[in-house]
Amino acid sequence: xxxxxxxxxxxxxxxxxxxxxxxxxxxxxxxxxxxxxxxxxxxxxxxxxxxxxxxxxxxxxxxxxxxxxxxxxxxxxxxxxxxxxxxxxxxxxxxxxxxxxxxxxxxxxxxxxxxxxxxxxxxxxxxxx
Amino acid sequence: xxxxxxxxxxxxxxxxxxxxxxxxxxxxxxxxxxxxxxxxxxxxxxxxxxxxxxxxxxxxxxxxxxxxxxxxxxxxxxxxxxxxxxxxxxxxxxxxxxxxxxxxxxxxxxxxxxxxxxxxxxxxxxxxxxxxxxxxxxxxxxxxxxxxxxxxxxxxxxxxxxxxxxxxxxxxxxxxxxxxxxxxxxxxxxxxxxxxxxxxxxxxxxxxxxxxxxxxxxxxxxxxxxxxxxxxxxxxxxxxxxxxxxxxxxxxxxxxxxxxxxxxxxxxxxxxxxxxxxxxxxxxxxxxxxxxxxxxxxxxxxxxxxxxxxxxxxxxxxxxxxxxxxxxxxxxxxxxxxxxxxxxxxxx
Lengths: 129, 348
Fold this sequence. Notes:
The structure holds two protein chains of two kinds.
Chain A: H1 4-28, H2 32-61, H3 63-69, H4 75-128
Chain B: H1 2-41, H2 51-63, H3 67-84, H4 86-104, H5 111-122, H6 128-136, H7 141-160, H8 162-168, H9 172-184, H10 187-207, H11 214-237, H12 243-264, E1 273-278, E2 283-288, H13 337-340, H14 344-347
Antiparallel strand pairs in B: 1-2
Helix pairs in contact in B: 1-2, 1-3, 3-4, 3-5, 4-7, 5-7, 6-10, 6-11, 6-12, 7-10, 10-11, 11-12
């Protein structure tokens, strides 16, 4: 005999497994700290690449100016200012990444908890039968 | 209204039943329109304009993830710009890469918004997108909309300066400077980025408020806000917006928002119920707003499967006297229900 409630629950769970479930499983298989650490590592790489691209474009844009004043400019001060900007850029981006990763992890964990709770309900339904 | 609700339910049922076919077809159409637009607007590389290539790429997009549409769009744009000027292609490539590295890698699901925003600019109705994304997206959608605006204006600046870039300016530095200056000095882009980001977030916040008709209030206030920010921004920066275009776009955005509301958030506020109860720890004040639904009329088709009745062939001829039929000995078990068909349903 088909149990309508059970079928509905199983359909919902199967739909979750196929959709967001996979994504959430991939997130929650890490410890929270590890997941955030990996996210931050990726963020540092991406931010460094992005900063490099922006800097390259900036230098390319002002190439004439750089060439004409290369002997007059204080290279050390220039490098220091670039590094300060880099640190700010990466710092802000990493902070945003930290917040995003934390929210993603917590939300995935919450939804997976609901999924496992549904699994227990399903098991009870089978036991009752 | 009931008829409309029935149509809505039928569309939902149809979509859920045939989504395996409908989604690839929609993705194919979206990719096709996008590639045709890119070829029409840029079109510097004649090879990419080949209909065969366009159809093959659109077909590939139909079964690949949604991000592939954005990827192919970016590659096509880069190809065209590269044919115009490799130096400008570097600038465009850097902008695309920055958008991916800094934002899109977080939210691959938002790539559709980044694809659709430039397309709506080409259709002259970009004001629809912030209201729509505020209604169906989250606060992060504001960044997707801004990315879409930046992508559109990047390509727009390239097409505007195409003659200068390819002809007059042989100096590489001057070409790059021209593109970057045109992009950073584009006041329309700046005003629209601010307006769209503010409107998306405002619509999102208002539609989540626990007030009646929050969706309607959100979309109207979003449209008005968009109109006000764009007009004031346009006046202050001398960006040169079309006032009629803004007004028409904002009105259209409310119309599109209303359609989305009908499909996504159709509730009946007249039947709102307020209940109050308590348990050991809390008092609960619950407001329940019922969804507007119509139960589809159940069409019950009753099949009366009458099997073909084979009537017993009665002998027409008179029985011969020499061989009389003994009806008493005749086996009547064969004349059961199967002989006349199952009559139970008929009896009912």
